Amino acid sequence: MRSATVHRQTSETEITIELNLDGRGNATVDTGVGFFDHMLISFARHGLIDLMIKAKGDLAVDDHHTIEDVGISLGEAYWEALKDKAGIERFGHAIVPMDEALATVAIDISGRGRSIFSADLRQAKIGDYSTIMTRHFVDSFARAAGITVNVRIEGEDDHHMIEAMFKALGLSLLMATTKNEKRGMPSTKGII
């Protein structure tokens, strides 16, 4: 079973994540940031991963540390759950519309984590979620997971744009982590 448990504790946050890549999309998420919880549940549902996230952060300051550390911890859980990466498809992509919004996400499980993010978000906040943290979450996740993540979002409603992106990220990871026994190690180097 491709699963992992990650616990991260700093002076700003305490986070526990349980992840099963071969799940059914069941998720229980409590970060204290309502919109972020909704996005992570949608990510898990469309990525067909079973996910439990419990996070306590310094939300009296703002949502930055909580969202960043959840991204780091989720990335570490993916890295651990994928283990040697033999037999995975490696590449994944998805284009997800949501009303007027369109999100495109392409990923490469390369071992070289980085993110490219293009979106014109207009609102500072959706509920208690800072929209600028969307870019930061993607980058924190990508670096910790060793995954290149390329995101392009367009639209008019920030809620729809961000939700389409989280769904597309889940679908892309589902495609890339799918096992294909014919694939072997999906790298000419022999390792990822």
The CATH architecture term is: 2-Layer Sandwich
Number of domains: 1
Uncertain runs are none
Largest sheet: 4 strands, mixed
Q: Rough shape?
A: globular
User: Between the first and last Cα atoms, what is the distance in angstroms?
Assistant: 20 Å
Could you please describe the fold and organization of this structure?
The protein has helices at 34-47, 64-82, 133-145, 158-177; strands at 3-9, 13-20, 27-30, 50-57, 91-98, 101-108, 114-119, 125-126, 129-130, 148-154. With 192 residues, it is α+β, with helices and mostly antiparallel strands. It has one domain (3-177): Imidazole glycerol phosphate dehydratase, domain 1 (Ribosomal Protein S5, domain 2). Helix 1 (34-47) runs parallel beside helix 4. The longest helix has 20 residues, at 158-177.
What's this, in brief?
The chain has 192 residues and is of the alpha+beta class. It has helices at 34-47, 64-82, 133-145, 158-177, and strands at 3-9, 13-20, 27-30, 50-57, 91-98, 101-108, 114-119, 125-126, 129-130, 148-154.
Topology, pairings included?
Elements: E1 3-9, E2 13-20, E3 27-30, H1 34-47, E4 50-57, H2 64-82, E5 91-98, E6 101-108, E7 114-119, E8 125-126, E9 129-130, H3 133-145, E10 148-154, H4 158-177
Parallel strand pairs: 3-4, 7-10
Antiparallel strand pairs: 1-2, 2-4, 5-6, 6-10, 8-9
Helix pairs in contact: 1-4, 2-3
Supply database-style keywords.
4 helices, 10 strands, four-stranded mixed sheet, 192 residues, Ribosomal Protein S5, domain 2, alpha+beta, single chain, 34% helix
